[in-house]
Write a structure and sequence with these properties.
Radius of gyration: 29 Å
Largest sheet: 2 strands, antiparallel
Oligomer: single chain
């Protein structure tokens, strides 16, 4: 349960009990520090403008707006037709190896076996919400071992063939919260050993 503190209202100056709000009530939250007269002047000033154009253009005439639009249509647009390797956002077809492994059929089968063995129950808290299959020995270390064990293969193929990575005894079922805690403890223990 969140802590409740005694706070000072930014609008009326009264003290109230709250969690982290700046105002004591909806009434104070809705009050505007700008007078009605000033609001009226601002409204008149904004009258001819269209919203959403930002400070870059301010008020743009319809003629200028049409000209800007024409510059971005079709093959006049510098990004037109540039997909894949031709795109400005192309990063060489890079996809993280870990993600490719986690999307593989071998990983999904291993995950399913671990969850079944643990009866779809978190081994940390007993929950059955948002379950994940975790490697007892770190996934990163297993990948490093796979690359050393099978140096002639690329990392993905080496990981697929490296049997310790897919042993059910190396897996454990955790909910997301317990998985994070488990990883923190495992990493801390690894640092302490070194």
């Amino acid at each position: 349960m969140p802590k409740i503190y005694k706070r000072h209202c930014n609008r009326c100056g009264e003290y109230y009990e709250g969690q982290g709000d700046k105002y004591c009530s909806k009434k104070c939250y809705g009050k505007s520090p700008i007078s009605k007269e000033t609001r009226k002047k601002l409204k008149e000033k904004r009258k001819g403008r269209r919203p959403g154009l930002g400070k870059k253009y301010g008020h743009i005439s319809d003629e200028k707006r049409k000209k800007l639009r024409e510059q971005k249509i079709g093959n006049k647009n510098p990004s037109y037709g540039k997909r894949g390797q031709k795109s400005f956002h192309w990063k060489g077809g890079i996809r993280p190896i870990a993600q490719s492994i986690r999307d593989s059929d071998v990983y999904l089968l291993w995950r399913q076996r671990v969850l079944l063995r643990d009866n779809f129950t978190c081994q940390g808290c007993g929950s059955n919400d948002r379950l994940e299959a975790a490697h007892k020995k770190s996934f990163k270390k297993l990948l490093e071992e796979a690359s050393l064990y099978l140096p002639l293969l690329n990392l993905y193929d080496a990981a697929m063939l490296y049997t310790p990575m897919w042993e059910i005894d190396n897996g454990i079922t955790y909910c997301r919260k317990c998985h994070v805690e488990f990883d923190k403890r495992r990493d801390k223990n690894a640092r302490d050993k070194n």
